[in-house]
Protein 1
Amino acid sequence: MNPIQHARISQKRRGGELEDYLGIHALIDSTKMLCTDNRHRILHTFWGVQEVILPIFGHHFQNSAGQSIEVKDLCEKDHLLVDFHHRFIPTLADFVSAMQDIPAQGLAKRLEQFHADVIDDPRLSATLLSPLAVTGQLKSLLITHNSWFINSILPMMGKADAKFIEFDITPAMFFNPMRFELWMDNGAVFPPSAQKLQHMQSFAE
């Protein structure tokens, strides 16, 4: 589905105008410009909502009908669950586990150098290091330590200005080697984080 289709779902459920919701859904799907298949869905996670969407749009907003809209609820029910056929919401660790072909040698030094060269405000460190905090995997930092996150996401958050520099790391560094898993394909199967949910559903049937 595209952002307009998701915005129509939000409008039908919550009232107001299509434009009330289009910006949020467009941002969730903005990673399509980085990867044109469903591997792009790194923001279709609780991490994406908590660390990217909410800092930009806030926890609530008022739609054109005067209703208070909870952004987290909108993201989950009108976009994330819809794209995975209401079966699950993957975790960031599910995506990171698909990044199996990224060379580990020298990665820590490269990320540390990127952080030192580009992140000149210590207040940004918690945001930039959040993938490591939730996954425990060093390679997850490639999701925030790259040209897209620095020059697109951080400025939208109002946390930093765009930098006119040559970037050592781009999103292609983690998207190109990322394996396409069937769970990414609109919830065709369950991701690693939802295996217990799968067993529970199978038992119930």
Note: The first strand starts at residue 60 and ends at 62.
Protein 2
Amino acid sequence: MPIQPDEIILASGNQKKLKELSHILNTYKLRIVPQSEYEVVDAVEDGLTFVENAIKKARNACAQTGKPAISDDSGIEVDYLHGSPGIYSARYAGESATDEENLQKLLTALKGVPRDKRSARYQCVIVYMRHAEDPTPIIAQAAWEGLIMDEKLGEGGFGYDPIFYCPQQQRSAAQLSPDEKARVSHRGKALRQFQLLFSQLYGGRE
């Protein structure tokens, strides 16, 4: 049985994503290190699915650091827009777009669309690779159902959170505390799947 590593490279330089992942995985005695600490050159995300892009990012980080890596490819699908922005969520308004620019473009695309046609979901795929040639990566996937509001609400979270309404919580994703969000979000659910598969791979750890 393989030995659990003490350090895993996060195949992202997104500090908010690092904080959220570290918060959810804080039960493990391991350090999540952003790939920027190793000056990893970003992977080319030219896949056509979240799974493809997540694998590309994890493999790229493994290859450049020689260490295990975890990647997260996520985005938001809007039914009225036939699944857009989808895999292009982070660059919906352009390659260097900010969260605010992406969010505003989505609001513009849905201007005048009635509430009952604004259904959407966040998708998250987590991939863990032990090394760049890992033939059996851990892959976990989960979704978070909601709808797109017509204005921002809340100061927390990131990405499209201020306009993503959660019917069960009756609040926007940006109004949830980190603990609340971890319980119900796409990333929280995918990471719990990952935790189970990770424990099975390494047989748990004292």
Note: The chain is about 30% helix and 20% strand.
